[in-house]
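Quick log. Single chain, no ligands specified.
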Amino acid sequence: MPHRPSKADFVGSRGASYQRNERAFLVGLDYRPKRRHWKPVKPLSVPRMARESSVASAGEDGLSDFSPQESMAELRELATSAGADVAGEFIQAREKPDAATLIGRGKLQEIAGAAASARADLIIFDHDLSPSQQRNIEDAINVRVIDRTQLILDIFARHARTREGQLQVELAQLQYLLPRLTGRGIEMSQIAGTAGGGRGPIGTRGPGETQLETDRRKIARRIRHIQQQVENVRRTRAQQRQRRESVPVATVALVGYTNAGKSTLFNALTRASVLESPRLFATLDPTIRAVQLPSRRKVLLSDTVGFIRNLPHTLVTAFRATLEEVQRASLLLEVSDVTSPVAAEQQAQVDKVLRELEAQAKPRLRVVNKIDLLSAARRDALRDDAKTVHVSAVKGTGTSALLDRIDQALQEDPLSRVKLRVPQQEGKALAILEGQARIFSRAYRDGSVELDAQVPQSVLRKVRSFVRE
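-> predicted structure:
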């Protein structure tokens, strides 16, 4: 009989005290639909990482360019981020999904035996399950079953720290839960856990605001209440954004695949102390800090939640108030991991989420991170270009070049190269220029200071009377 968690393993649903990591058995899928036979052609000799992102997205048949092994590796990371110990893995190859059980009854029994031998507490599918498929699989295996979406929702619940983040996670969980109420057990009729990432069985953690009841009307009422609170957050953000936009300060947003090193880069550029972690989705709550560019202009840098393959639509919708920072940014810094063997596929997934956010047309600068993990020869071969900068956020390598490139890309508060003659008694004007302009030369003549400077438009308006024709 498969091992199932007992009361000794976890206690209660609010303020849960979990004693050990759950053992998870992972199930991946390799769909290989029958294809028409075409005349073979000589393959192009292009390295995989050098493929254009336009061809790295899902093909016409809807299949991802992630191989089954690469998808399983990502699922393994997700399970570990949720606090599970991986007890075993299984990849099922099929021509098409089984409508009732996704993988077929025969393979289901095989997985049941393997999971029992591994003493698994739950089975995680690297695929979205319909409510009926999830019920059928649980009935056949007699072990708790969750799908990829539920796992990601659980990780978000684990990492949400602010009230806003917890509301957005709870909204996504409720929207996922509502169609799955019929005929489900206690695991799906209430979200366990506590606010701020309390521990509980994987797939059941939540913000701990209420015990979710199986009554659809009560859950629908709760969804409406949370949506109203999230709308209030959106209005507050809009007011804050209006105040920010009343002064010429541009916003630059960090975007990219999860675990690409966005938070580490954010800390390197702002000297902040945002959590840096190799776990997926360590950053949920957005952070905004001011950064001074080489031109002495200031910009606001925003760290955002990482994207991932097949990011649940409920999460994109729930986090729209947060992701509006991406929509309103003047420039996107698309951070990628140079060591990732699936960098092109990950970039395609980032493009997909940006399209969903209607931010695909935003000016973008690609930041290739983690070059410190490459050999010296490979690092020396890297070359920055108009759209790409190579950095090591951990070592600080390339961050100066990145700030220069951001300076060049921004159109807000444009820069002008001017010559000025400022009387020395004009201390206020000199202080403004020292603090907010880039000075190339300085000379003292006849009680005045002659300056050759690059000055933002907002500063030039204050010192225009000192400009020499």
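Residues 1-18, 36-63, 183-196, 208-213 have pLDDT under 50 and may be disordered.
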